[in-house]
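User: hey, got a sec? need ABC transporter ATP-binding protein folded
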Amino acid sequence: MTPPAAHVAHPDQRQALAFRHVSKQFPRGDGGALEVLRDVSFDVPAGSVVSILGPSGSGKSTLLNMAAGLLAPDQGRVLVLGHETTGTVDWSRLGYMFQDDRLLPWRTAIDNVGLALETGSIGRREKRERSQAQLSLVGLGDFASAYPHQLSGGMRSRVALARSLVTEPDILLMDEPFSRLDAQTRTTMHTELLRIHRERGMSIVFVTHDVEEAVILADHIVMFSPRPGRVHTELAVELPHPRLGTPDALSLVAELRAAIAGMSADWVI
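Assistant: Yep! Here you go:
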């Protein structure tokens, strides 16, 4: 592992996302401030899978919300496809998959997927066709009329993934989306996500506190320190897929866990 490389200060169209010296605080009830992020800088190259690996409370979700335009940094800049989030960004080019599936219980699977298209101008028929196509992409083409309570946890996650893909985004933000799944279902979702990435070629930013998950999925890992979150280490993962259980992947997992152990005893792994 090598320390983070120096970052240039100008936008780069080759980067899907760029974070430049980003810091963020939140007010506390006692009148003070909770520092969540401090001077964070790194890039997400177009078409790559980048995992942000860090302990709970290190600002990973906060950074993702900045990339989605839901929060603004106190200091620094966030650039989406070369444009600052404070300027003109085509937000339809981003998809967001949350930790919870956030499916509406009164809507069928296909109607939950179509939620992401309701703010656009496309017609009802096209919306349904696109929603059905995404359900088929995630292996749920035969479950379009099923309601959330009729689906397993893994199937609900697939519906949520289909919803985040239905706008055909260039960037997919994922905030610990598989953390509530059992180990076997989680492994299946990892395989599916990598398959979809090969087919679509979009950029993926995957937030996790699970070392093995980061190694299995990512082309590049950005490891955060405990709060306030800072970039502790960046490294490329140049291992062929599939990686689960391979000697090289296990060695990298052990190396990262050793680095974490030296950083803080507060990181649950």
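Quick note: Residues 15-100+170-263 form a domain with the Rossmann fold fold (CATH 3.40.50.300). Let me know if you need anything else on ABC transporter ATP-binding protein.
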